TrEMBL record:
<keyword id="KW-0482">Metalloprotease</keyword>
<dbReference type="GO" id="GO:0004222">
    <property type="term" value="F:metalloendopeptidase activity"/>
</dbReference>
<dbReference type="Pfam" id="PF09768">
    <property type="entry name" value="Peptidase_M76"/>
</dbReference>
<dbReference type="GO" id="GO:0005743">
    <property type="term" value="C:mitochondrial inner membrane"/>
</dbReference>
<keyword id="KW-0645">Protease</keyword>
<protein>
    <recommendedName>
        <fullName>Mitochondrial inner membrane protease ATP23</fullName>
        <ecNumber>3.4.24.-</ecNumber>
    </recommendedName>
</protein>
<dbReference type="GO" id="GO:0034982">
    <property type="term" value="P:mitochondrial protein processing"/>
</dbReference>
<keyword id="KW-0479">Metal-binding</keyword>
<keyword id="KW-0999">Mitochondrion inner membrane</keyword>
<comment type="similarity">
    <text>Belongs to the peptidase M76 family.</text>
</comment>
<comment type="function">
    <text>Has a dual role in the assembly of mitochondrial ATPase.</text>
</comment>
<keyword id="KW-0378">Hydrolase</keyword>
<keyword id="KW-0472">Membrane</keyword>
<dbReference type="GO" id="GO:0046872">
    <property type="term" value="F:metal ion binding"/>
</dbReference>
<dbReference type="GO" id="GO:0033615">
    <property type="term" value="P:mitochondrial proton-transporting ATP synthase complex assembly"/>
</dbReference>
<keyword id="KW-0496">Mitochondrion</keyword>
<dbReference type="InterPro" id="IPR019165">
    <property type="entry name" value="Peptidase_M76_ATP23"/>
</dbReference>
Length: 229
């Protein structure tokens, strides 16, 4: 028989345990919280969600860096053009504006973890931004020139796969024609990007600039020999 003393639960212990259970239940459900507790609860939940989103984004990114034909091809072509894609410059982050990602010549690629909800969206987004990286390396893009900006946006939308027939069919419920639908998708995406350029006056101005450079930029498929539309 054990000589260990028997631990008895006194009223104070029971009360403490019950209060801990109540507090835990409140924070897990968000019910009956004080205003101060609600702020803390929402902040904790936000941090947890964003941490999970970034972890999932990084998982998708690592997969695509290793297995995506378009991503690995573009990285190799950037190297051949004299550049280098440092994996440390492809970052999953929480974005404050609705978008999938972005490219900055000095900082690299931003992937918006809170808007990318699956690996295929990340694949198209990363491919898109790597086209910008390639253009910046090969053609020395002047990002202050709205026409340069429009041209690389046209190429990125066309070459990345985001306007491929299967992708766009899913997004737009099939209401498109094969070749013209691809071009319409490319123009639409390029216009949405050019609108945010500092020298863009309004949507009409963006449409005019995209239309002005569209033919030459759309037909330039480098570094691909051709593209699947």
């Amino acid at each position: 028989m054990s000589n260990e003393p028997t631990k008895t639960l006194n009223a104070s212990d029971a009360s403490s345990g019950f209060n801990w259970w109540i507090r835990t239940l409140k924070y897990k459900t968000g019910i009956n919280l004080t205003d101060q507790e609600k702020v803390a609860y929402e902040e904790e939940r936000k941090i947890k969600t964003e941490t999970e989103q970034c972890a999932k984004c990084n998982e998708y990114k690592d997969f695509m860096l290793q297995y995506s034909p378009t991503v690995t091809f573009m990285i190799d072509q950037i190297r051949r053009a004299g550049g280098y894609v440092d994996p440390a410059k492809i970052n999953c982050e929480i974005c404050t504006v609705p978008r999938y990602g972005g490219f900055n010549p000095g900082l690299g690629v931003q992937l918006c973890a809170n808007y990318i909800d699956n690996r295929w969206v990340l694949n198209d987004t990363l491919s898109h931004e790597l086209v910008h990286w390639y253009d910046n390396t090969r053609f020395k893009v002047d990002w202050g020139d709205i026409r340069h900006h429009a041209c690389t946006e046209i190429r990125a939308a066309s070459l990345s796969g985001e306007c491929a027939i299967v992708t766009e069919f899913k997004r737009r419920l099939g209401f498109m024609r094969y070749a013209k639908g691809h071009q319409a998708c490319v123009k639409r995406k390029a216009i949405l990007s050019v609108i945010n350029h500092p020298k863009c006056k309004d949507k009409q101005h963006a449409e005019e600039v995209v239309e002005e450079v569209f033919r030459s930029c759309f037909n330039d498929t480098r570094p691909f020999e051709t593209i699947y539309r």
